[in-house]
Amino acid sequence: MLHLGAVLWPVAVTIDIILRFVMIGIVPGNRRPTTAMAWLLAIYFIPVAGLVAYLLFANPRLSRRRLEKQARANESITNATSHMKLPEEFHSSEEWVESVVVLNRQLGAFPLDGGNKIEVLSNYKASLEAMRVAIEKAQRYVHIQFYIMGDDEEYVGPVLDALEAAARRGVNVRLLFDHLGTLRVSGYRDLKKRLRASDIEWRAMLPIDPIGRRWRRPDLRNHRKILVVDGVVAFTGSQNLIEPGYKRESSHNIGREWVEMMIRVEGPLVRSLDVTFATDWWQEDDTTDVLSDLTEASHPLSLADQPGTTLAQVLPSGPGYESENNLRLFNTLMYSATERLNITSPYFVPDDSLLYAITTAAQRGLEVNLYVCEKGDQFLVHHAQQSYYQQLLQAGVRIYRYPAPMVLHTKCFTADDDVAVVGSSNMDMRSFSLNMEISVMMLGSEMVNAVNAVQDHYREISSELTLSEWRRRPRLQRWIDNVCRLSATLQ
């Protein structure tokens, strides 16, 4: 045995050296230098675990089949809306606003839609109730997708009751939920039994199914939240279809609830949200010819179908797109703003470009307010987020921490009096590169004021973090924050 060990040891060392040398030339390919360095550190310090993690999690791309479908869907959207120009009511005095609209059209294919009526919903139970009411009025179809679903009697139960009743009366109800996002929720098996017993058509998004050859990087997720009823009314935003404590005993024990923002939409923008849903459904159901549905959409709608005056544009993003659509939009808005930025993000772990955009905005004299959780629900992400606070505060960004144990889960921001963005996207590298997200950009002071009214409420009940206070934090906390910051770049 000693002789065998003496032979195997130099062989193992040689293989280890060769692997390290080879990975230096493989890992940086098509990655940010910071991301590549984080992976190399993991492989060098914990070789076996680091290499296994790299093989499982380092490829952020979807399967070829999914990428081809997304490309075909984008082409269909572009063809169906190619005749559309900027709406007649578009009259922004800021030239940069029009450039952002053009950017979004290039990135996500969807045009700017006028004539919308949009309502901001910030009460958790009231938004679920508004969804239930809309579903009960459905006559033709309901399209609904959420990252996380979880049944309960008080909050989600009535929504599921309405979906089941709609399906029984002949309404075409299609439901999507993210496989791993919902699998982790208590009562998942009971939820699936309920869905199987109903007339609802449902699919799990991005399922992990090695036996069925449906395998990819397991943490690529569909994080979108969309409800569309009859192509007339739609909902989207940050809220999942689950009770506010996320069915977690630990959350209920300490009184932790998630704080959300949704928007209720009527008008032409509903169609863009519906097409986003249809594309995701098509990704999970090869029997559906969604492309024909996508190309039948006529734009713009008649004046009778335009219930409001709000201009808005949908921007989908995720690994199905060549560019990090949401990151490009956020950076452009931050560099373009001239007066103020109000930003709410539960998980603020920016890449270098976003960090420079927000700190540069503050350094050139803009009022920049950032609303975050005092104590996050995810240990690694929360401490990684905190590692950026000193740099932000030194640049002049004002940080407001929403009181624990609540989780400020809203994802929104406003730029000057011109643009408001609401959606499912966090400001972290996971949302930029790995998650499928949906953002809605709304133009005009009316929507900016509506979103800011909610953020003003956050400020009233939050505590402002000062630079002097942050510099006095314990050394151990600073060390933990910095270590967790390394994990944030492992993409």
Structure explained in plain terms:
46% of the residues lie in helices and 20% in strands. It has helices at 2-26, 33-45, 47-57, 64-80, 95-108, 124-136, 157-168, 179-183, 188-196, 249-254, 269-284, 290-295, 325-336, 352-363, 379-386, 389-395, 429-433, 445-461, 467-471, 475-487; strands at residues 113-121, 141-146, 172-178, 201-205, 221-222, 226-229, 233-237, 258-259, 262-266, 310-317, 340-344, 348-349, 367-373, 398-402, 407-408, 412-415, 419-423, 427-428, 435-443, 463-465. Strand 2, helix 7 (157-168) and strand 3 (172-178) form a beta-alpha-beta unit. Helix 6 (124-136) packs parallel to helix 7 and helix 15 (379-386) packs across helix 20.
The number of helical elements comes to 20
- How far apart are the termini? 41 Å
Number of strands: 20
* Largest beta-sheet details: 16 strands, mixed
Q: For the CA atoms, what is the radius of gyration? A: 23 Å
Helix content: 40-55%
**pLDDT < 50 runs, ≥5 residues:** 295-299
Oligomer classification: single chain
Structural class: alpha/beta
Shape, please?
globular
Average pLDDT confidence is 87
Report the portion of residues in β strands. Answer: 15-25%
